[in-house]
Amino acid sequence: MTPPGEPPTASPPGCGPYACPCCKLLTLEARGQFEICDECSWEDDGQDDPNADEVWGGPNGAESLTDARRRYAQYVTTTRATDPRSAANGGPGRWRSRPNRRRV
């Protein structure tokens, strides 16, 4: 998508939900608007498949999209099937379920 240092190209708000680039669940109201996925906690900074191995810093720190996907895949294979918080199971999302993480 958009290289680091340039404003991300967003999918328009209100036309979603859009799939999170990390967990692929329909958790985002818009793309590239720095919205945090309720399920995997990836902050959508516009990074996508073409540059998934790059570490952009910023909202996701030292984690590349590929690393975040690996981390989420490990959660899926070990816990998600029995986690009622998971958006995949009809819950509000793992990240959103954590204390002090509720949206206003």
What does this structure look like?
The structure is a single chain. The protein has helices at residues 65-78, 94-97, and strands at residues 18-19, 26-28. With 104 residues, the protein is mainly α. It has one domain (18-97). A two-stranded antiparallel sheet has the order 1-2. The relative contact order is 0.16. The model is unreliable at 100-104 (pLDDT under 50).
H/E topology pattern: EEHH
Shape: globular
Strand order of the largest sheet: 1-2
Percent strand equals under 5%
**Total helical segments:** 2
Question: Would you tell me the overall average pLDDT?
Answer: 82
Number of structurally distinct domains: 1
| Distance separating the two termini | 29 Å
- Content-based structural category: mainly alpha
What ranges have pLDDT less than 50 throughout 5 or more consecutive residues? 100-104
For the largest beta-sheet, the strand count, sense and barrel status come to:
2 strands, antiparallel
Radius of gyration: 13 Å
Helix content: 10-25%
> How many beta-strand elements?
2
Which helices and strands, and how do they pair?
Blueprint: E1 18-19, E2 26-28, H1 65-78, H2 94-97
Antiparallel strand pairs: 1-2
